[in-house]
Amino acid sequence: MSGVLPSPRPGVCNLGAPKYGNNFGADILCSIAFRSCRTSLSSGDFKNSYRLGHNSRSSLGGNSRIRNGFSGGRGWAAREATGKRAFVCMAAAVDRAAAATEFAGWLKEQGFPDQALEMKMFEKEGLGCAAARPLKAGEIALSVPENFCVTAFDVNNHPVVSGPARGRGDLIGLTLWLMYERTQGQLSKWYPFLKLFPEATASPLLWSDAERDELLKGSPALEEVKDRVAALEEVYEELNSGFFEKDPQTFASEGFSLTAFKNAFSTILSRATYLPTADIFALIPYGDCLNHKAECEAFLDFSMEDEAVVLRTDRDYRVGDQVFISYGADRPNSDLLISYGFVDQSNPNDFLSIEVGLLETDRLMGLKQQILEQAGFDNPQTFPLFKDRFPTQLLTYVRLSRLSDVGLFAKILFDQDVIIDQTNEYEILMLLMGECRVALQAYAGGSDEENRIISDKKASIKEKLAAQLRLCEKQILINSMAALRNRLAPIRGIPVKGGGLKDPNSDIMEMFDMAEQIASAPSKFLSNIFKK
């Protein structure tokens, strides 16, 4: 039918750029994908991983067990300490290029094997890794022996932080490890490694309440950040009352304050890599300097055969080219900002979530719920809206939710974009238009204002990052509304209040204006139009 946009493959509604079409199966998962590199936690996983300590991806069992054959840094040579024990912050003033050179030399002294990568400063990304020799796709570019990685093994066997870390997740354990080692200054055997770490990131987890409320207004990220901050502060209070306050000589107030805890956590969140094969988080020399590129498919993982963390390239690199990895598939900009402190405005995987469900008063709710369960969907169900596409299952789900004729249930197909009838299609498109309109109205200002802030040299880093995030999210909503308008325009014979039929093309713009004006109450509007 002319009203259906072509899809690059089944399961995708294309908004104009088939290059990035994804194929969503019936058991679509709209939470953040946890495929590979770096930390990527849904809100629930994020809180459980350090509140409860039993999350399968980041749990510490409170003992020194080796998880899935990966033990971590048991083989680091003890470095003779020189210098004073004093709390140190790895501030922005540290020359990271010089620190990287020093660290590479120190690793060499420890017996670290030669690599095909070298740490290097880049103009845009800062510290990263460049190809030290030509690399072919599929070639091993990095192989870090397990004993050079910092993991739960090091935390569990640490003379000081093993107690506070017991029963908590990897991320909190590594955070405590970093806090303590920072207090040791040059006495820490890890000092050359620590000098490469930033004191903190630009994550909104570290922003003030006022900054978050102002800069993230309208963005779904605001509530996510608030939830995570509340959970993080709850964990700190448990640690402070249970350990820090009881032993101020070991846990000096300056190094174990709430601010120090949050700063260290943001650093670990951005630097730690999740290794799927070993089911463990690790701090990996060289590996934690690799920068993210959304279209990259290369990732770090533990090789049981090599007993090392390995990176295989997904493309060819020339000498001096920056080598990239993926921090995880399908990660929206809100997650990149929270976890790493940056926004990728060209991120093809950026998305906003929309939740849909059945009406509680629907007399056919039981039957509809059975259909959804058989197709692998929940009630309610969350779907992603991308900048250039959304899953056809979203439309099918909403079509089913508005059907009142059991005879039409046979036309419900979640693997195809099939219009049930024009009345139903008009209704669900108007409902989705309303949802997008309400979401867009929650933001302050327009796209021009966001671009002005981004290009303003006087704007702060936080202001620029927030503007980038808001602009990307607004564009998703604007593009989704445009696609819904395109689907509405060709629909013929739309019923009107008078009971007759009307060609919408004659006053289509008036219809759209009306829809947007009353978007906060689409159901009421539709109930008046579709009188039966």
TrEMBL record:
Q: Which of UniProt's keywords are assigned here?
A: Methyltransferase, S-adenosyl-L-methionine, Transferase
Give an example GO molecular function. Answer: methyltransferase activity
Which residue windows are coiled coil? none
In which domain of life is the source organism classified? Eukaryota
In the record, biological process GO terms are:
methylation
SET domain residues are 115-328
Entries under InterPro entries matching the protein: Rubisco_LSMT_subst-bd, Rubisco_LSMT_subst-bd_sf, SET_dom, SET_dom_sf, SET_RBCMT, SETD3_SETD6_MTase
Name this protein carries in UniProt: SET domain-containing protein
What is the species of this protein?
Riccia fluitans
